[in-house]
Amino acid sequence: MNKRSVADLRLGERAIIQSFNDERMSLKLLEMGCLPGAEICLDGQAPFGDPICLNVSGYCLSMRRSEAATILIE
């Protein structure tokens, strides 16, 4: 079974952060509050799909889809 990432979320879809697949990027994401077990939701996206706006544990966070692809979800 393929793991899903935050980049796979549809608008309004919620998920729980499970882990990361990029060790270097994971430190940056952890500092931004993307902690394993936290709920994450895709709230919006730019007209061409990048960047995206996420709601992580109650606050808005904007990031590139390539960064979101490193966050694995359940």
Description:
18% of the residues lie in helices and 39% in strands. The protein has 74 residues and is α+β, with helices and mostly antiparallel strands. It is globular, with a radius of gyration of 11 Å. The chain contains two helices and six strands, in the order E-E-H-E-E-E-H-E. A hairpin with a 2-residue loop joins strand 4 and strand 5 (59-63). The protein has one domain (4-73): SH3 type barrels, CATH 2.30.30.90.
Overview features:
single chain, about 70 residues, alpha+beta, SH3 type barrels, six-stranded antiparallel sheet, 2 helices, 6 strands
How many alpha or pi helices?
2
- In CATH, the architecture is Roll
Low-confidence stretches: none
What structural class is derived from the secondary structure elements? alpha+beta
Strand portion, in percent? Answer: 35-45%
Mean pLDDT: 92
CATH superfamily descriptor: Ferrous iron transport protein A (FeoA)
Order of helices and strands: EEHEEEHE
- The beta-strand count equals 6
What count of structural domains? 1
Measured distance between first and last alpha carbons:
12 Å
Largest sheet: 6 strands, antiparallel
CATH class: Mainly Beta
CATH topology category name: SH3 type barrels
Biggest β-sheet: strands ordered side by side in the sheet: 1-6-2-3-4-5
